[in-house]
Amino acid sequence: MPYDPGDDVVVIHQPREGAASGTFRAFAATLKGLKMTFSRAVEGTTTIGYPEEKTPVYPRFRGRHKLHRFEDTGLEKCVGCSLCAAACPADCIRVVAAENTPENRVSAGERYAAVYEINLSRCIFCGYCEIACPFDAITLGHDYEMADYNRSDLIFTKEMLLAEPLERTPLRTPDE
Amino acid sequence: MSAPLYAEIGYFEPWWMQIAKALAIFLVVFNMVPMALLADRKLLGRFQHRYGPTRVGPFGLLQAVADIGKLLFKQQFVPRDSRKWLFIAAPIISMVTAAATLAIIPFSDTVDIFGVKTGLYGVDPSIGILFAFAFGGIAFYGLMLGGWSSNSKYSFLGSMRAAAQLISYEIAQGLSIIGVIMMVGSLSLVDIVTWQEQNVWLFIPQFVGWLVFLVAGFAETNRPPFDLAEGEAELVGGYFTEYSGGRFAAFFAAEYLNMVVVSLLFTTIFFGGWDVPFWDQPNWIEPIVVLAKMWVFIFFFIWVRATLPRLRYDQLMSFGWKILLPLATLNALVTAVLVVVLD
Amino acid sequence: MPRPVVKEITFTLDGREITAPEGMILVDAAGKYGDTEIPVFCYEPKLGQPVGACRMCLVEIEGIPKLQTGCSTPIRDGMVVHTQTQRVHDAQRAVVEFLLINHPLDCPVCDKGGECPLQDITYGWGPGTSRFIEPKRHFKKPLELSPLIAIDRERCILCYRCVRYSQEVAEDYQLVLQQRGAASYVSTFDGHPYVAPFSGNIIELCPVGALTSRAYRFRARPWDIEGAGTVCAGCTAQCNVELTVRDERVLRVLSRDHSEVDDGWLCDKGRFSYQAVHAEERITQPLVREGAELHPASWEKAIEAAAAALKKAGDRAAALAGGTTTNEEAFLLSGLLRDKLGSSHLATGVGGEQPLDVVRALADPKLQATVPDLEFAHTVLLVDCDPIDEAPVWDLRIRKGVRRHGTKLVVASARPTALDQNAAATLRFAPGGAEGFLVALDAALSGDAGNLGGAASAAGTNATAIQEFADALRAGGEEVVIVYGDRALRGSAGRALLNIASRLNLANVANAGLLELPSTPNGRGLREVGFAAGHGPGFSTISAPGHGAEAIASGLASGDLHTVWLHHVDPLRNYPNRPAWEKALGTAQTVIAVESQLTDTVREYADVVFPAEAYPEKEGTITHPDGRVQRLRQAIGHPRAASDVPGSGVRALWQVISDVARELGHSAGTAIAGAVVSKRVFEAVPFYNGMTLDGIGGRGLRWQEHATFEVEQSDPFVLAVPASLPAKGESELRLGTFRPLWAHKDVDLSPALQFIRAKQVVELSKADADARGIGEGDRVEIGNGTRIPGTARIRAAIPAGSVFVAEGIAEHNANVLTHGIVEVHRVGPGSTDATSIPIQSTPAVEGRAEMPPSAGLPIPPREVT
Questions:
Q1: What is the 3-state secondary structure (H, E, C) of C162-215?
Q2: Fewest beta carbons within 10 Å, which of B113, B265, C574, C854?
Q3: Do chains B and C touch (3 or more CB pairs under 8 A)?
């Protein structure tokens, strides 16, 4: 039994080649197409001229990472537990922990991150590190402008991640 | 003894005027190439809600200059297994043939310059349009040799396509002009324009002929939707796959120069050349009128490029042979009958 | 002693019929045969009897109204067990909730996080939430339990594993559980640091993060690291280890449980001396002496220099190998010297060479005991060796046998051993009297009263004692394992040992035999691949036997030998008679040394120095004393030189020897890959035939189980009475030496082990000490002409007239004393500086006269923060 498409399928009839009406339809379709493109040209552009104008990001946009300190004591929140490295699906976080001493107290816990590196050229900005962090020490910020000339410059160290990031990206207002 | 040579045009031009004219026409029209290039990119952008190039110069106006500069400074690579001198000659042939047709385009009737009676055109040979077709035929060698001498299968396929396409559409194009020639009674482009000045723009009585000439003109210039010779989706770059740097630029410029020339032919043959209807225009404005009309057609070329998808090769062939050729023939026959009957 | 007989029974587990050996603990049977995991914390079969302390393993057994602990219930035929009922689940959740009440849940900062049984079981069987909102128990944390171990008492779940280990396995009786109830905590009884040779094992035993390694503290998390299985080449025991590697650095050494080798334990030397691998002091590029100074050189230059020296020396070249030398390196080096240069002056041991027939007879597969035999034999005889110092895990093995299987231990040695208090009989002979003792024991066993008396007095003891000892040896049963050190094999000692073996009929009794304790880790392998003066690969006869170690020294000193290759050997430190070696190396034309640090030998005498690989960098095979060929697998890359130029750093030693052979035009001795050399070794040694690296794999292959080695059987040898020991004056003492566990260059370079570095101690008897007015800890000098300083230690078990000093140590080494008779003088009172007092490795209660020696390091526990 041949398949009957019924009403579900709209059959598009091709112009029959050679027939006068087919030729006319093809001609008319061409004109229709020309009208379509011309009207697009009249509408103007929708390009955002990126370096001069920037798209505002949403508050939950996942951009460059930030490490945080406690506001009262100035100690780093990160205790170097490496859970972010474990959660990272791109394997771009490297943590080497060390022990706090009374003379050199860096974080609030027993240990701190002596080395904390994120390879941003590998990072996929999934935010799992932020979710994994038991101390809210790492969050993803709004900065997405991280292009550089060397791959090695994209390995961000702890100092770079702890530094106040440049707020280069406009934030979307609530009603936007 | 020299008088008979010029007898046909009925006046004498000194040698320096010939050279000055040639230089002026070539330089003015050749400068349209980068402008057409830029217009292509800017307009394509607009058709797609984009800006097109904006970075080089104000509004990106110097983009074409930058492109040309870049191409000229790139390495001119010659494949090891290519036919070297043919490989080098091919883009030159393309350029020269494209430019040569400019010689017969009339920008105005004869005018007085420094007391010298001068026709504002390179030459006005009695064979007129045939001259254009002749160089169109030679232009095919540029493509063919470029593709063949590269010794690359993509280039070769591209040049084969180009050859077949040019031959197919040249016939339709030539036949479509027959009606015009019959109505005007002359092959000279100056005569054709003058006829239109006195009667009516030829696209009205020769509407079908114009349509066929228009479509065939697209095909002859390898512009979309007939750019199968490039076919970057399947042939990398067609006949100029192996070309780079200045030679590539020559092919590229030849394509746009062809577009300019064909636009000028449209203008001259079907749209009254320098004529502005219902106005006795001064002589000095006539070249500007020609260029303005030409730009309308260039815009149309770009517009079509933004609109129509590339044809399949069999569609291209069947369209050329089964539709355009009969249509042009029919047009010629009907015109012939009408010309005899109305006379 | 017969191994336990296994009888299969069937029981029902969660509705399935499971067949398992009778008497197996339910937890093990469910896991191994029933594919059902019953969670446990305190249960660890290696620790002996279960205690049922954690209650995690509760299961329901039909017929018993209350839930039972699966870890203490042996399975019986027809038993019906349920592990998945609601009652069991409720109980498991309740137990986890209770355990977590006082657990601080500081997993992010805890080193155990990620590899923690408590985490795993909480995720798998726990309730997920806690109803406990009251304050938790708090202790000061973390404390130093010892310089190697940090204890966090808040995390402890009181499973008793560490305490049971200390009490029942290591038998040092130091760890106890103090206080009661929630206030309980683990510590040593008197609060002193827990210093013992096997203390590191409690780190691995702890199911939570309460006991963690100080050296590994915060170095890595489980997902940062890779495990690399290899074999520890630090001593003869060749324990199987798994190295924890992060970023091409060894960060930790864990045990890779192999019941045929190490029973899952490691000594602290093997566990912590890995730090020497990454020490700053390591030599990482070749050095060549120019003028008086050693200068870094390119490999090409060093290889050229070594080859030129060897070529010049020809058959006057000699080589010594020891340490972590692999079979492959020994094979290539001995082939180079023997086949190319025509020299068989190859020595490995510090002892003298035994005749070839004795060497062959001692290698008879029928006479070989295995390590498990130490545990299950009727009687174990130790002849002049102390496993705690030379193969530490054997000490635990023998203790296990005595404690759990009733193995009878008899000890005959000059110096009291750590196992004395477990021994059924002990015999003390005079230092250097091992040969006399063996001849006397042979005589006693054969009833040759004539030899017995003479040999006994030559050993510095008497016939009655020997006879009683022989009776004790015979009384236990027919399965006897004799453990002997190769330094005891002097003169006719080897023949005497063979006689004893034949008189005890060891060749025809299963699970009995001889077990050698070679003086270098791969002593057996070196011998078997032909690195010996008297025989080729597989004990084959050679045409021109060479010199042993002592003869090489005198040959070099007299100019008969020109060049010596020291492969992982430091004769000035590890060989007896340092003055003779100083003279020998000073006279030698060229000394080529393969060494990892600037030792005295290298600094003063070496002309060409090749950087030595550490064992985690090595690839090859080594042979366990019981004949098990084991594989060393490369765990980390070779270190680069300071210049960081690729290829300039440490290279594989088989490659170095191969390059030297190529330079010498000895194409048969070159190889393009380590595996090629291994293959050649397996082909060259008859009883290694058919072995492959894959076949050896991670567990090793005992060649005696796959190949035969025919030895001519001979009648018992007729032995002469050895020369009696030199007479000593009234005020003089006989000098004996011992090599402490910690006398190892890797210990010297490991920061974590600095506190326990071997220092010179002078061990003497109470009577001798009293006669000289020496008290415990006094500073004394010992010597006869040459004197060395040391700290006096009075040991009740040392017989009067003998004194023991440590050899193989970095400073004040005993090998400068060349006389067997010495005098001891008191030079001053003991230092009050705690760090100058040597720590004793002797682990346990020695006799009843001495206190547990846990007070070695008078540092009170302090906070680590």
A1: HHHHHHHHCCCCCEEEECCHHHCEEEECCCCCCCCCCCCHHHHHCCCCCEEECC
A2: B113
A3: no
